[in-house]
């Protein structure tokens, strides 16, 4: 038999603790984001379709991007127990300097199209977090303004080699004079990939108003108010352009660039040089033999050659071959701090985030980028603790198994024949 009684006010009082309401709508919005996917959903609500799809989309059928993200899902962690993980150190030494976290912000183009604060928000957030910020050749904030925004942090400059070599190297010279410590030479864009979302949306610089874009803009007035009441959108490193993104890329980029050109660039740059867009072991070996300081395994976020190799799958082989000679970094598909931890365990020295950063930017400007970094930091620390490691150096291949989903047909046939 249960004895019952009439509850008193003292019984109710502990249950009536109401949370103090947050009056700042931006902070309230960002506080609800617990994952990068949450930031993505907020970004989609707040950003016109053409600009959001430029960030979200990839080439052709977007298979490369889907496979890259799936590869991070297809892992198994192997934790150790009964370790003292009360303190965790997430810092790493990368390219001759310290980063408080094992990731930096990747170079992104047309960034102020996504949200008007653009690269300034990314550079300021990176500086505050103690991580590198990368400015793209196709950025919408100047080399000098990014430096002014992040004067004491690590700024990297990403170079596309144009057909006009003198203009390209003028940018390199500006970056060196501004104190950028690393040059990222992107080598996987001899021509623009077929980014079908952009074509279907008529994505252009500057935006072209159509009945469809007007209708899409109506529920997103904040974006348009910011766009129309701040400085006109322009590129930081080239003259104004009026046309589609693909037309711009095909006009600028040089399909004749080769290893000799890369060696020439290396001879001109006084800082660290990293080659971004490496997609096979042979190229990684050749670059290591050239003496580059680092390579980034990347398929350009799936935005160039669809069905390109998955960087995360390439990682163990490349690290085994060249990891002692050059730093191996990785990007493409990273949406969780656990993705970063898995990459580090398999030998990556560093990682870069692109879309994850832009989702935060679109969701809330500078504060949104801060929230991206905060989410990833928490996920990294939690994953490391649950694995039983206290610093990045303790991560090793035994902590991760890459589960097989895509197996080459020849290998599968050999396996069947052997049974």
UniProtKB/TrEMBL annotation:
It catalyses: (S)-lactate + A = pyruvate + AH2. Pfam families: FMN_dh (PF01070). Keywords: Flavoprotein, FMN, Oxidoreductase. The active site is at 300 (proton acceptor). One of its GO terms (molecular function) is FMN binding. Glyoxylate binds at residues 54, 160, 195, 300, 303. Residues 28-405 form the FMN hydroxy acid dehydrogenase domain. InterPro entries: Aldolase_TIM, Alpha-hydoxy_acid_DH_FMN, FMN-dep_DH, FMN_HAD, FMN_hydac_DH_AS. FMN binds at residues 107-109, 136, 158, 186, 276, 298, 354-355. CDD domains: alpha_hydroxyacid_oxid_FMN. Its cofactor is FMN. Belongs to the FMN-dependent alpha-hydroxy acid dehydrogenase family. This is Putative L-lactate dehydrogenase. It comes from Labedella endophytica. The lineage of its organism: Bacteria, Bacillati, Actinomycetota, Actinomycetes, Micrococcales.
